[in-house]
Design a protein that fits this description.
The structure holds two protein chains of two kinds. By secondary structure, chain A is mostly beta strands. Helix content of chain A is 0%, strand content 54%. The radius of gyration of chain A is 13 Å and the shape is globular. Chain B is mostly beta strands. Chain B has no helices and eleven strands. Chain B has strands spanning 4-7, 10-14, 19-25, 32-38, 45-51, 56-59, 62-67, 72-77, 86-92, 103-104, 108-113. In chain B, strands 2, 4, 5, 9, 10 and 11 form a six-stranded mixed β-sheet that branches. In chain B, a hairpin with a 6-residue loop joins strand 4 (32-38) and strand 5 (45-51). The chains are: A mainly beta, B mainly beta. The interface between A and B is medium-sized, with 27 and 23 residues.
Chain lengths: 115, 114
């Protein structure tokens, strides 16, 4: 089946610094990748959708200059949280879909803590 | 905009009993309805899905039913086991080629008591 690898699994950073999260599709070509944010005991909220080689489409209320998304290849997408603040602390999850019938495959998530 | 409502928010059952979680969706163009199980600190894992051209799908102890007219779909877990305890999410998408965005329900915390 399809596998998506997400790294790091957890990260602690200081307020004002930037953090990059990677999402890789290991055995299929991910034409579309999705980034979600999940606060404790809440649902997954879609932040943005990216297609390989194109600019990401952000959901309403998500700051595109703060959450930089790059999808430069069919197997890799990155999310960079710039100038992180404590309120950015959350669980970030990527999902990839491609030309197979595997549907949407999710990464294992990244726990970001900003101190 | 698109919306998916999920009920109940919490569900407690005795081991061996059945559990049912229900969702409704607002976007009539939705055609793909997956269910995910999420354990603490992990990403969601697909447990079953159904497409709009099918009314019911079953995989061992898990089944999903879809009523397109009413825009309802439900997850049924029979013979529940303690390891079924987790948070379950329904979702809906209009992407026939799996490129449409997934809209998630609010989640149901299922507790199976031994």
């Amino acid at each position: 089946g399809a596998v998506v690898s997400q790294h790091p699994s957890w990260v602690i950073c200081k307020s004002g610094t930037s953090v990059k999260i990677e999402c890789r599709s290991l055995d299929f070509q991910a034409t579309t990748m999705f980034w979600y944010r999940q606060f404790p005991k809440q649902s997954l909220m879609l932040m943005a959708t990216s297609n390989e080689g194109s600019k990401a489409t952000y959901e309403q209320g998500v700051e595109k200059d703060k959450f930089l998304i790059n999808h430069a290849s069919l197997t890799l997408s990155t999310l960079t949280v710039t100038s992180a603040h404590p309120e950015d602390s959350s669980f970030y999850i990527c999902s990839a879909s491609g030309s197979t019938n595997y549907g949407y495959t999710f990464g294992s998530g990244t726990r970001l803590t900003v101190v | 905009g698109e919306n998916v409502e999920q009920h109940p928010s919490t569900l407690s059952v005795q081991e061996g009993d059945s559990a049912v979680i229900k969702c409704t969706y607002s976007d009539s163009a939705s055609n793909y309805f997956p269910w995910y199980k999420q354990e603490l600190g992990k990403g969601p894992q697909l447990i079953i899905d159904i497409r709009s051209n099918v009314g019911e799908k079953k995989d061992q102890r898990i089944a999903v039913t879809l009523n397109k007219t009413a825009k309802h779909f439900s997850l049924h877990i029979t013979e529940t086991q303690p390891e079924d305890s987790a948070v379950y999410f329904c979702a809906a998408s209009r992407g026939s080629s799996n490129t449409g965005k997934l809209i998630f329900g609010q989640g149901t915390t299922l507790q199976v008591k031994p």
